[in-house]
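Table S2 (continued). Query chain:
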Amino acid sequence: MSYFISGVSYILWDNIPRGVQIACPHIEKSCTSAYYADRKLGVSEMVATAASTIHFFTGNNIGPCGDLASRCLNIRLAVDRPDPENRAFEHPDPIDWTDANRADILRALYTILLGNPVLAKRDGGKAKTRFKTWWRLIGAAVEHGAKLIGQQLDFQELFTSQEEDDEETASLADALAVMRGRWPTFRANDVTDLINRKDAEPAST
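Corresponding output:
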């Protein structure tokens, strides 16, 4: 909440332990809400502020799980050597390089955004992904830019693949498939009755 009130553009959660699967109801809520409300630290007062801050997570072989999986995009840095920190960098000082080329970078970014074909559609077109406004303004523009250079990019498929790779989602899908195979339609008490029956057949039958 303190970061949101400060209006920071992003929060970097750095050096997450190796292999951790990330899930947090507060972060999940902030990813899909225009505003975030919580109690102000030290006083009995609820405050609300814009939740436009972007979350970044860095670590080795980490990933989102649960509800956070469908709200994240995963960026994996693949290297072909055991000491990637010693590889040659095209821009050894990326911050100075970005400052020196800021105008060219912004010109390129705005060119991509203004070339968005969805903006020319009167009805705005059918928005993809759960982040409708973001996709209309940014996602569709980036997809179109990728297409112009011969690359295939679909943000809806990327978000869907995140859910498919999530262990919790996969386990839930397997459980529902077993239940559907046992009953054409079922209710919660059907499942609890089966669990509580000592003479119940194995779930795989």
